[in-house]
Specification:
Residues 79-94 have a biased composition (Basic and acidic residues). This is ATPase P. One of its GO terms (biological process) is copper ion homeostasis. It is found in: Endomembrane system. By secondary structure, the protein is an alpha/beta fold. The chain has 15 helices and 13 strands. The relative contact order is 0.19. It has helices spanning 3-15, 24-28, 39-43, 56-63, 77-89, 96-107, 113-124, 157-162, 171-179, 226-235, 248-258, 274-282, 298-303, 315-320, 332-347, and strands spanning 18-20, 34-38, 49-55, 134-138, 142-147, 150-155, 183-190, 210-219, 239-243, 265-266, 288-292, 306-310, 323-325. The protein has two domains: 3-46 and 222-347, Rossmann fold (3-Layer(aba) Sandwich), CATH 3.40.50.1000; 49-196 and 205-219, Calcium-transporting ATPase, cytoplasmic domain N (3-Layer(aba) Sandwich). It starts with a helix and ends with a helix. The strands form two sheets. The protein has a seven-stranded mixed β-sheet with strand order 1-13-12-11-2-9-10, with helices on both faces. A six-stranded antiparallel β-sheet has the order 3-8-7-6-5-4. It binds adenosine-5'-diphosphate (ADP) and magnesium ion (MG). The site of adenosine-5'-diphosphate has 21 residues, from helix 3, helix 7, strand 5, strand 6 and strand 7.
Length: 348
């Protein structure tokens, strides 16, 4: 590209709220056939709000089919008995306040947007909070923290399974919330009673036992122009994909709202695996633009043929990207591509 043409491109685009990092980016932007969006903070606003607090007993009622919509073959007798047994085993009566204060206190150690939504929701509802004495992030899965009630887990099914907690009792509740496009998280609290002795582990350490307290959920809203942008890209023949650490059902529900093919929704992608997903997408010779905002997205932005950062995104995302959208508007992806095309055609 001649310096003049490049300057024209950059000036035009800066006025349009699109910043290019280097001159060669205009050349690189050619031959793109796939546009991959991160979900949270990119296609959605990323300002999650706490929407649901479902203590375990309430979740069990839903699971027992007490609304009669899905009668069990035995008329629900078995489910009722199982629910009663579980109730008998439980040590604490769990209400909204206990569930939320334990979850939010634990999350007050985290910077994650999900954590902030839970903490803010608890504060709005006037629930008492404390700072955890110990705190650990489990990336892509949730958190582990110690509050005065004991050790707490907040996160997805995998986090529970990895710690010997069976998520089955709240599965129906989780699925209902996920179908609504919400991020549902399980909350478990260390049991006062010692866990079952594990003879296999000869280290004398008893595994910690947890009881499920319930489920909390947050919702996010899709950005105004996201749906039109997806439709316009598809109309122009681009493959449009979405990557998310969220679970499959939530990812598909949001994908549905945006008109993204369920097959193009890649869910439960761990932070460290986002770049590998881009590699896999580009393995057949496709050239992808990756649009993202988070620390997690930075390696994927570098791996993609062209990386695009949302302007309000994290510094490392912006540093890793070739293009930054100053107005946080997904529609500006179209503008960025159009400006690149126009500049290139002027040069030729
Ligand atoms: P995303 O890419 O959507 O921002 P992450 O990779 O950070 O997602 O997290 C993936 C999943 O792990 C979340 O959908 C949530 O279920 C769980 N998770 C992550 N961080 C937390 C947290 N602080 N509290 C509860 N759950 C969390
Ligand atoms: Mg994001």
């Amino acid at each position: 590209a001649t310096p003049m043409a490049t300057m024209v491109g950059s000036t035009l685009s800066a006025k349009n709220g699109v910043l290019y990092k280097g001159a060669d980016i205009l050349e690189k932007a050619r031959g793109i056939d796939t546009v991959v969006f991160d979900k949270t903070g990119t296609l959605t606003h990323g300002d999650m709000r706490l929407t649901d607090v479902v203590p375990i007993d309430q979740a069990l009622e839903t699971d027992g089919g007490s609304d009669g919509s899905t009668p069990a073959p035995d008329g629900g007798v078995l489910a009722d008995r199982e629910a009663k047994e579980r109730e008998g085993e439980r040590e604490r009566a769990v209400d909204d306040d206990l569930l939320l204060s334990v979850a939010a206190s634990a999350e007050s150690g985290s910077e994650h947007p999900l954590a902030q939504a839970i903490v803010e929701g608890a504060e709005e509802r006037g629930v008492d909070l404390e700072k955890p004495t110990e705190f650990e992030n489990v990336p892509g899965h949730g958190i582990r923290a110690t509050v005065s009630e004991g050790e707490v887990l907040v996160g997805n099914r995998k986090l529970m399974e990895d710690n010997g907690v069976d998520p089955a009792p709240v599965e129906a509740t989780m699925e209902r919330l996920e179908r609504e496009g919400k991020t549902a998280m399980l909350v478990a609290l260390e049991s006062a009673a010692p866990g079952p002795a594990d003879p296999a582990s000869g280290d004398g350490q008893e595994p910690r036992a947890y009881e499920l307290l319930g489920v909390v959920a947050t919702a996010d809203t899709v950005r105004d122009s996201a749906r039109e942008t997806v439709a316009e890209l598809q109309r122009r023949g681009y493959d449009v994909m979405m990557l998310t650490g969220d679970n499959e059902r939530t990812g598909r529900a949001i994908g549905d709202q945006l008109g993204i093919d369920p097959e193009n929704v890649h869910a439960e992608v761990l932070p460290e695996d986002k770049a590998d997903e881009i590699d896999a997408i580009q393995a057949d010779g496709s050239r992808a633009i990756m649009v993202g905002d988070g620390v997690n997205d930075a390696p994927a932005l570098t791996t993609a043929h062209v990386g695009v950062a949302i302007g309000s995104g994290t510094d490392v995302a912006i540093e890793s990207a070739d293009i930054t959208l100053m107005r946080d508007d997904p529609a500006d992806v179209l503008k960025a591509m159009r400006v690149a095309d126009a500049t290139i055609s002027k040069v030729r």
